[in-house]
């Protein structure tokens, strides 16, 4: 390695798409920058020693009050496009969970609100979450 080569810090995250059997998706309103006040998929950083699947289940519970085991989550894909997050290089693994219509939700952690949105009438989404959601819908 030469003196001119540099290392890029890469952060590892997990996102979760939760759909209801009646055509709604769960979104959170972000309480922190970047994109504070915008709608996004639940998700967050993978902790040391944790798998992305376990992180997705943990973040889902922390941000929305929905509890699922990691085994209940289906992997949708990996998003690693440079520039997808203004804080630097982030790689995310996205998962999907389907729940029944009356599943209760409660915003927590860094989510100021959690709401069910009809899949055919979504608000603008933070980051590349519209692309992630579209990929999930294509696999359902």
What does this structure look like?
- With about 140 residues, the protein is of the alpha+beta class.
- It has a single domain (about 10-140), classed as Nucleoside Triphosphate Pyrophosphohydrolase (Alpha-Beta Complex).
- It is built from two helices and seven strands; from the N terminus they run E-E-E-E-H-E-E-E-H.
- It has helices at about 50-65, 130-140; strands spanning about 10-20, 25-30, 40, 45, 75-80, 90-100, 110-120.
- The strands form two sheets. The protein has a four-stranded mixed beta sheet, sandwiched between helices.
- Strand 2 and strand 3 (about 40) form a beta hairpin.
- The mean pLDDT is about 95.
What structural keywords apply?
alpha+beta; Nucleoside Triphosphate Pyrophosphohydrolase; four-stranded mixed β-sheet; globular
Percentage of residues in strands: 25-35%
Order of helices and strands: EEEEHEEEH
Q: Based on DSSP secondary structure assignment, what is the total number of beta strands? A: 7
Class per helix and strand makeup: alpha+beta
Report the sheet with the most strands, covering strand number, pairing sense and barrel closure: 4 strands, mixed
Give me the CATH superfamily.
Nucleoside Triphosphate Pyrophosphohydrolase
CATH topology (fold) name: Nucleoside Triphosphate Pyrophosphohydrolase
What's the pLDDT, averaged over the residues? Answer: 94
CA radius of gyration is 15 Å
Number of domains: 1
Unreliable segments of 5+ consecutive residues? none
Largest sheet, spatial ordering of strands: 4-1-6-5
Q: What CATH architecture label applies? A: Alpha-Beta Complex
Supply the CATH class.
Alpha Beta
Termini Cα gap: 45 Å
Number of helices: 2
State the helical fraction.
Answer: 10-25%
Oligomer: single chain
Q: What is the molecular shape?
A: globular
């Amino acid at each position: 390695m030469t003196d001119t080569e540099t290392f890029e810090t890469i952060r590892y995250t997990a996102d979760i798409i939760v759909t209801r059997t009646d055509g709604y998706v769960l979104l959170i309103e972000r309480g922190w920058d970047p994109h504070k006040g915008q709608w996004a998929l639940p998700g967050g950083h993978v902790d040391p020693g944790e798998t992305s699947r376990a992180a997705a289940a943990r973040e889902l519970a922390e941000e929305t009050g929905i509890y699922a085991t990691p085994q209940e989550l289906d992997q949708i894909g990996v998003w690693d496009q440079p520039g997808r997050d203004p804080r630097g290089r982030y790689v995310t693994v996205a998962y999907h969970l389907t729940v029944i219509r009356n599943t209760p939700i409660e915003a927590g952690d860094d989510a100021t609100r959690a709401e069910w949105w009809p899949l055919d009438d979504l608000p603008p989404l933070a980051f590349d979450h519209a692309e992630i959601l579209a990929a999930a819908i294509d696999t359902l």
